[in-house]
Specification:
CATH topology: Porin
Radius of gyration: 19 Å
CATH class: Mainly Beta
Helix content: under 10%
Oligomer: single chain
Distance between the termini: 38 Å
Number of domains: 1
Structural class: mainly beta
Number of strands: 9
Largest sheet: 8 strands, antiparallel, barrel
Strand content: over 45%
Order of helices and strands: HEEEEEEEEE
Strand order of the largest sheet: 1-2-3-4-5-6-7-8
């Protein structure tokens, strides 16, 4: 019975997406990324950073979206002696989401939608005040996110919160924790 429901849901989703006009969404974002826990630091404070990229959305009320973004995530760490260390991660983030238009539709002048999904973050560079290099961190981190979007004419704004599921450090005696990121994004909606 579960398999039948999954097959019906998947078929319905793809049928819905196949009849919709794709929307290209160039996006600029601000993000604040903190660290969930760290046994080596007393405090971790997320710093304002940025993200830029593009995504493609398919669907009407129920839609799917995939994107590629270049991301910078910055966190200040503080040890028990109140010494501060900056840690900055850069990389490519690939989010995949499913959303639902709760007010309006793709032809409306305005709309509100909710969405959620998963993402992969490939780390391309790490800059830190600590004695660690990019090789001391995992090359990829997976996460899940949920958010809310508002559309107006050809513009959109979104807010989302992402929970990383991957411990960042590869060094056994240096446990940094996982990223927790808040994104505030704005961009264009371009039918293609």
């Amino acid at each position: 019975m579960k398999n039948l429901l999954l097959i019906v849901f998947t078929f319905s989703l793809f049928a819905n997406l196949s009849y919709a006009q794709p929307i290209l969404k160039p996006t600029a974002s601000m993000n604040i990324s903190g660290i969930s826990k760290s046994s080596d630091f007393d405090n971790a404070t997320g710093q304002a950073s940025w993200q830029g990229g593009v995504s493609i959305a398919y669907g009407d009320d129920l839609y799917g979206e995939i994107g590629a973004f270049f991301v910078n995530k910055s966190t200040d760490l503080q040890d028990s002696l109140s010494q501060e260390y900056m840690t900055e991660f850069e990389g490519v983030r690939i989010p995949v989401s499913i959303g639902y238009q709760i007010i309006g539709n793709e032809n409306s002048r305005a709309g509100v939608r909710i969405f959620g999904g998963g993402s992969l973050f490939w780390i391309t560079d790490v800059q830190t005040d600590l004695n660690y290099t990019k090789d001391d961190f995992k090359p990829r981190a997976g996460g899940v996110f949920a958010g809310l979007g508002v559309d107006f004419l050809f513009l959109f704004a979104e807010t989302k919160y992402e929970w990383s599921l991957t411990e960042l450090s590869e060094v056994p005696d240096f446990m940094l924790g996982t990223h927790r990121s808040f994104f505030l994004s704005a961009g264009l909606r371009v039918p293609i």
